[in-house]
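Contributing new records

If you add data, match the layout below exactly. Sequence lines come first and carry their own label; structure lines follow with theirs. Keep one chain per record. Anything else will be rejected by the validation script.
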Amino acid sequence: MEVTRREVLAGIAGVPLFARSEGGGPGGAAPGGPRPGDRRPGAEGAAAAAVPEVRLTWLEGRPGTAAASTWGTPWPKGVVAKGQTFSIADGTPVQSWPLAYWPDGSLKWTAHAIAAAAPAESYTLRAGTPAAPATPVTVRDQKNHVDVDTGVIRARIRKSGTDLISRIWRGDVEIAGKGRLVNLKQEKIDEHDDRTTVLDRYESDIKQVVVEQAGPVRAVIRIEGGYAGKKGKSWLPFTVRLYFYAGAESIRMLHTFVYDRDGRQDFIAGLGVRFAVPMRDAAYDRHVRFVGEGHGMLAEAVQGITGLRRDPGAAVRAAQIAGSKLPDPATWDQRVTTRLQYIPTWGDYSLGQPSARGFTLKKRTKKGYGWVAVDQGGQASGLGYVGGVSGGLAFGLRDFWQRHPAQLDVRDAHTGEAEVTVWLWSPEAGPMDMRFYHDGMGQDTFPEQLEGLNITYEDYEAGFGTPYGVARTHELMFWALPATPPAERLGAMADQLRTPPQLANPVAHLVSARVFGGLFAPVDRSTPARAAVEDHLDFLFDFYRGQVEQRHWYGFWNHGDIMHTFDEDRKVWRYDVGGYAWDNSELSPDLWLWYAYLRSGRADVFRFAEAMTRHTSEVDVYHLGEWAGLGTRHGVQHWADSAKQQRISTAIYRRFYYYLTADERTGDLMRSLVDSDETFLALDPLRKIRTEPYTPDPHALAIGLGTDWSGLAAAWLTEWERGGDPVAETKLKATMRTIAAMPNGFVTGEGLYDLSTGEFAPAAKKVAVSHLSAMFGQVEVCAELIDLVDMPEFEKAWLQYCRLFNATTAEQTAETGAGFGNLILRQGHSRLTAYAAARLKRDDLADRAWREFYTGDGYAPNLPWRAEKVTSTLNPTEQAPWVSTNTTALYGLAAIQNLALVGPRIPNP
């Protein structure tokens, strides 16, 4: 009887991660035992060498206030034994857990967390017994709720109902409660001045609560559910993770929702997180704070006693401005004291960020009365506070202005209970329009759609431009404070909200660990030739970073992505021209950015890549429905194009962020891809261009050996090395072995795949090579696999492809029986030549790689390599008309990998 994947996984569910390598991840045999060629020297024999010490530094420099951080550290193969414990040299308490294993069972990646009241400049991670926190975070998992205590604050998380966090205490004082998710929904979008739509109110409905970590330094609680209305209807499935650190006064929230409508009805008109905040102090001792741009701040009392016709006294006024408790009113000038009841109390405040360029701030006394404009500004921090001298809640949304329209609301601060709402989508922005952007324009048949592709580069197909199943993740912070904080403290909190403290490994350690295929080396300007390439790499990154700001590539769904192609006539990027608009990972800019960070350690590159990973992994990929596990090709809308493919959803783009930060959400996303081979039953990627009838057969699925297989392989590889899925290992190695068995290996182009065995069927000798096959992570996946799996026949097949892609037609024909045709992207493929040169130790191939890099069809050394100012567009900006994102990504990857693989052969200028 065949054992299904689900049954196999059920057998290992609940096993601690350190123990899982025994069952089928690296270090344990897949069902049926090891195959010839598997490298398994045994986990018990690993770590004979001493565990190296790793000096960690803060990505943006030491934080100026208390900071917590979680990060991942890699280890060389065979050096760190499974079960190894870790410590910080100065005695800082640390919590550690495994992220990935090498095939011999040794640790490949470990995750670590610290919480420091006074952060040091750096920390040294080493083998040893970790110090225990003075006030560890503790978790009590009860029948109906989970209680978490950081030693400073306590929180109660409900397991059902509406409230995610029902109470937050600091000591014996309740700081906040009734923490829930809120949503406004409308069925249709009003057109013109027809305003008839009624808003329906929805709130969180908890389905499951799981304790993922329980201390002593870090605790993680996962909450799953949906948004439910009063009539029992539910939509927008969500996953919320709550993060607590030992000794911390804050809670970090990661909120993810999946849009489960087709975009034609049911529109989000507001989406937020809401808390109730008890107000115990006198109205003049209650305070509202909003941090705007930089450390600019609105600092007011609910009942102001400054600027009055009568003066209560300088000490009284100074105390209110400082947020301190005012002296007894009996000590004030009695002309003020006796008239306090006539001074307005301002209960409601609202800061809205409708665009990346500006926010507005207004207030009113209470519901039913007019709003008074306070001020306007540029890019608000997203941080606010409401409370008083006896305690209050600070609240914030990361990427507040970048993800506009966002909003912060305070309501009823003049009553016994204020209400705080952090709006991820502002209700004042109108409904979120998810509709497809055109009517199809008569493209009813495949031939008509291909004609449309030939003019706008958009691959349209009716019903395919749906947002059903796309997702978005937001990061929020909440601080339970003992009193209204001074301005300096709020400014520091705003800085940490904008840029959360992140510990990072030194570049030298990342290189020496030989992770991510060993395809990068430290930045090196030691020769004029190297320096010139480094200058070009710097220019390209700095140019795109500037374009994001100048072209305003921001917004709820857009933040993190970049545009595909420039329009030299309009002097704007082709935001409205089909497949030339949003890039959606086309030709791997994600990889370019992450490898650029790994070799440089630059904080600005990390943050750029982080934003792109958050976007491309959520917005450009389907997480529900028949296309779950597939991504959408580049287009005017992120979900518009009908090409739904593995090459966009591939885990190879996400691995970097997961392993460097141990981010659980990214781990979920990669794990969800492990069964995405089943999507080939639902959708044929080549349906529009096949010349022969094709019906998907689970035992003979047509799967491309390039962009399709590399996406599947990345998911299987990640799940296997994380130690949790022996079936992933089986499928990964079976496909490797059967691709290698094809007479022309990867040059064959496509194979017939059996879902039940994970094998490709024997194939005839043929040649089918595309310029795209290796450009969506296949280079990087294969480099990692060759490092991990001792399968010489697979390496031989891959090196053949690497050698021949840019070779002469005669060379291609001699080995495979036919030439590959008139291929493009030769500069991007120079890194394949370089990889073959390094593996085969052939200087002739190394020299050829550099010739291809300098003379290929990409960026040439004699280009301007500068941007010029443009004043004829809507806003002044810069342009470099010769720059395109396809070429940039491939130039960046080719430069980085060529320097790492065949750097000594780089020709002098």
